Amino acid sequence: MKEKIVSKASELFLKLGFKSITMDDIAGEMCISKKTIYKYFCNKEVLIEECTTMVHQELHRIVDTIAAKNHNAIQENFEIKKMFKEMFKSTDSSPLYQLKKYYPKMYHTIIEREIDVCQSWFRQNIEKGIKQQLYREDLDIDTYVQFYYTLIFTVNENTISEKEAQNKELQALEYHTRAMATPKGITELEKNLLNLTYNE
Fold first, then answer.
1. DSSP string over 19-77
2. Could you give the CA distance from residue 5 to residue 176 in angstroms, rounded to a whole number?
């Protein structure tokens, strides 16, 4: 039952917002009593923490799965972008923005936890792109990892609308890739941008 509550609560929080969804709403959606929810979670904050942990674990699992496939470095980033768009397509407002505004302590805990993981992914992607001659050999990898991390998280924590955040993330990805790309990489970037536009 605990896993079912976390799953349904995550769905509602992401779609309608962490602030607006109450324990009564979750109980009503699941046709259970609020007492049942409190049997597993002493308050809403603990439930939100469990939900954000579950969502991030799922994101990590999917990103690792995509990274393990035989995509080139640029295509890999676009596949990950596509996955995020699909996962949050029914979400109205940016989850990170909501957490920062209404649950700042929890937000900072999540950010601290994610820094190492995200920076590791970005580093692996850049190293892969250099080997594939899609990114320039003379890159200062640490700097570009920091640039991209700062861009992505600044977009998400300061943009209310999830749709707008997704659009800005795509622009950040294009900006990041163009800054690193070789002529071969630019060709690959243009191909992925074209495919993305065509499939929308």
1. TT--HHHHHHHHTS-HHHHHHH-SSHHHHHHHHHHHHHHHHHHHHHHHHTSS--HHHHH
2. 39
Tokens for 76, please give them: 């890999």
Between 67-76, 139-148, 154-163, 184-193, the lowest mean confidence (pLDDT) is in 154-163
Within 10 angstroms of residue 54's Cβ, the number of other Cβ atoms is: 15
Structure letter (DSSP) for residue 92: -
Task: Tell me which of 160 and 26 has the higher pLDDT.
Answer: 26
- Domains defined for the chain, CATH in brackets: 1-53 (1.10.10.60), 69-199 (1.10.357.10)
- Per-residue model confidence as pLDDT tens digits over 113-161: 888 888 899 999 999 999 999 999 999 999 999 999 899 888 888 888 8
Exposure of 14 by Cβ count < 10 A (0-12 exposed, 13-18 middle, 19+ buried)? buried
What is the widest separation between alpha-carbon atoms in the chain? 61
Tell me which H or E stretch contains 95: helix 95-102
Q: Residue 179 pLDDT > 80, yes or no?
A: yes
Secondary structure class of 93 (helix, strand, coil): strand
Q: What is the mean pLDDT of the chain?
A: 89
Question: What confidence score (pLDDT) does residue 171 get?
Answer: 94
CA angle 102-103-107, nearest 5°? 125
Cα distance between residue 83 and residue 128, in whole Å: 20
How far is Cα of residue 143 from the mean position of the Cα atoms in its chain? 21
